[in-house]
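Quick note —
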Amino acid sequence: MEKKINSLFFLLYVKGGTVKKITIHAVHDRNISKFWDSLELPESQPCFICGKKVTKENVGAFAPIDGKVEVVCEKLRCFYELNNRKRRNP
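Predicted structure written out below.
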């Protein structure tokens, strides 16, 4: 069983893989619903990595990608893959 992570993160990398700035904002479980609504997300949307249906109850992370807020499910492998993609394509 994989551990659930609830966090909002913005990663900014300089080309070549050098980290310029990383800001991590955590969102407590009790505030996920309010935060989800503030982003004006639909009731559910597919995980950016695996395509699994993501809702307020099983969201793992939020990330700004190409001007949109994307979500990933609670699977750690999806969270890590999102992080790796952000590093490769800031």
